[in-house]
Amino acid sequence: MTLHRCTTWQPGLDYGGVAREWFFLLSHEILNPMYCLFEYAAQDNYTLQINANSSVNPEHLRLFRFIGRIMGMAVYHGKFIDRGFTMAFYKQFLGKKLELKDLRSVDAEYYNSLKWILDNDIDELCMGQTFTASTEEFGEVRDVELKPGGAEIDVTDANKHEFVKLACDWRLTRGTKDQFEAIKKGFADILDINALSVFDERELDMLLIGLAEFDVKDWEKNTIYRSYTKSSKQIVWFWEIVREISNEKRARLLQFVTGSCRLPVGGVFSSRLTFYITLILMAGAAENFLGENSPCTCSATTSLCALLLARKNLQVCVCLSASFT
Asked: Which pLDDT value is given to residue 306?
């Protein structure tokens, strides 16, 4: 499959750089949320999701199919697009079942509400919650039934798991079925989607947007600490490990924390992304995550053991396919 490109500014021989720039510039423009085809997942999450109100553009389905073709062409030619999507988007693309944890990075408030319903007895609370959800379209709020007759069905302890599943699926896919199918159809015009079955959602993210180059000094300089200081031994160990690991594992770490393996324009700490390191005390061995409570911290042997524990836990973070809790 040959890629033919015509540019208006100057002719050039393509040894890879021209095609790479073409995919970057084109994807940067067509995925811009300003055009209402996509939107940022959340205020503090700049991965993309389909805009449920994209129908404001009567040509939106044709544009989504075109975007799917660009994604397929990028994969076929080994090039990268400019922006990444939510993990829920990639899971849908791969035909995987969506889970409640997929909602956490997209809508933390709604996730916490559904999680609370699962974790508590609600029969005696008289919540008045039915099998409906509220949505806003062009400033108008309306209720949507999650199942036929849902407005007449109260949520109880007996059926709350069904409600949470339906609510989660609705929130992650609301009003985007046709758009998503158009993207898949466009991708299938170029490549067989089944060829992606060897990847998981995080690997698909890296396949599409590639790996970033990391300035670890800038990363360290601009990190915000909570209950730690930059001189805390756990923090010193953390940056020792980050400097040691490969660029791919740094990308995995960033993906683990932020949901994307790519940096926004301007670097790690532009105004669109903040990196925090926070002390979270948990019961059991987890509270020793970075060796916080190791005895005899003056002992070289104990310090070495704590460093190895920190390295092991950080490697676990890099390999996990879920975000921080």
From this structure: 52
Closest Cα to residue 38, out of 77, 1, 99, 81?
Answer: 81
Q: Which residue's structure tokens are 């999680």? A: 115
Beta pairing, strands 224-226 & 140-145: unpaired
The Cα–Cα gap between 146 and 148 comes to 7
236 CA to centre of own chain? 28
* CA atoms of 195 and 13, how far apart (whole Å): 31
DSSP-assigned letter for residue 210: -
The contacts of residue 120 (CB under 8 Å, 6+ apart) are none
Extract the tokens encoding 81: 């697009």
Joined tokens for residue 99 = 């889970």
Query: Distance (Å, rounded) from C-alpha 104 to C-alpha 88?
Result: 10
- Number of neighbouring beta carbons within 10 Å of residue 214: 17
In the structure encoding, which two tokens stand for residue 262, read together?
A: 């790519």
- DSSP output for 106-163: T-HHHHHHHHHHHHS--GGG----BSEEEEEETTEEEEEESSTTGGG-B--TTTHHHH
Cβ atoms of 220 and 99 closer than 8 Å = no
Strands (E), the chain: 38-42, 45-50, 132-137, 140-145, 224-226, 276-278
Q: What is the DSSP letter of 263?
A: P
pLDDT at 216: 82
Whether 295 shows a pLDDT value over 60: the answer reads: no
Q: pLDDT, tens digit, for every residue of 2-45?
A: 555 555 555 555 445 677 788 888 888 999 999 999 998 877 67
What rounded mean pLDDT belongs to the chain? Answer: 78
| Nearest alpha-carbon partner for 51 in 188, 60, 59 | 60
What would the mean pLDDT of 94-116 be, rounded to a whole number? Answer: 91
Quote the Cα angle for 144-146-151, to 5°.
70
